[in-house]
Amino acid sequence: MADTVTGSIEHLAYYDALGRMTETDAEWPVLNAGLQVLLLVDAWLDRGANAARASAYGMAAIRSAVDGVPTSVTARQILFRIVDAVEAAGVPDAQRVARHLMTYGRSLDYDGRYALAVDVYHTLLRHVATTVDADTAIDVQMRLGYCLRVQDDWSGAEAAFGQAHAIAFARGDASKALHARIGDASVAFARGNLPAAESMLDEIIVEASEPELTDIRSMALHDRATVAILRGQNDHAARLAYGALKLTRSLTARDRILADLANAFAQLGVLDAARDAYMVLANTAQEQYVRWLAMINLLEVSAFQVNEAVFEDYRVDLTGEPLPSVLRAQAHYYTAVGYHTFGKHAAALRSLEQASELAETHHYNRLLFQIEELTAAVKRGTEATRRAARSAPAELRDVSDAVSEMRELAGV
Prior knowledge:
Structural class: mainly alpha
Oligomer: single chain
Order of helices and strands: HHHHHHHHHHHHHHHHHHHHH
Largest sheet: none
Mean pLDDT: 91
Distance between the termini: 50 Å
Low-confidence stretches: 1-8
Shape: globular
Number of strands: 0
């Protein structure tokens, strides 16, 4: 049956992933179980309880597939809850499984399985009527927009955030409407349109001044800090990020804010504080994407601190990770930065070639410019610029002390 959201075969992401595996692969049981449960949900909601019982290989076979997922895998219990809800309900009702499907989708995007998460979110959107459960529809569109953005599907992300804003605005939900506008700003930022992102975020920060909008203000301050870093306004970025960090109540948001704060410190040359923050993230971040990004940043910091042994440890660790293309391109680039720092010019050029291929394919224009600059410098034999480490400036001493305390509390 055609997918009414994407125009493609339903659950193609699962079929593609399974098609690249054999049944002996470690990930086969969890992906196969996920697919069987999604097919069960489709049959139940589209064709009724009788069709659900006859779905795929039958209910017993579906339970057997889920039972084959290792008990250590979070998705196992989520999938069992979905099957239980379908079996217990006499009449098909999307509300009985919506929350569990959302949790399943979130577990996938936390693990960096964005294409699979998109598949689950599309499944939800096919079955959840916005007039019946607008809150769920908004939340799904927001997560869908995020997953599409990190996969560089910018038009898809804009459409998802636009749908979220339209639903929230129609309901008079100021918080969710502003959140969707932050999503739009994130797409402008990803496209490299910093002036547009900056203008949008400044407006949102002003509009989110009411106490009940504290979380939204934190999100906007956080994203505004990211823009400030790229504008070279690192002192301002650190203060913005710390303001966002103090306001947030979300562990996931805390991770992302701390990453921007670390980036600002790195740009300022406050390398010890930057390293402290990245180490907290690499070991404790909720989302796989953030942990990967922190590892890449630790690779960069170890190059700046001319610590080749630590650099090699992070480089080897990253080589074995299934990074999305944008992070793999950055990993190759910062590997080249390190090799250049250590005087290994041939190795630096090989890493730059790998980074350039990815950047050209996926149109990472800002990164491509950095790659071209470094390539020219390496070919000229120019020595690497050493970033002198410095202590935090007085006006940011409270911020660096807070980050150091976070690392101590995390035990890393």
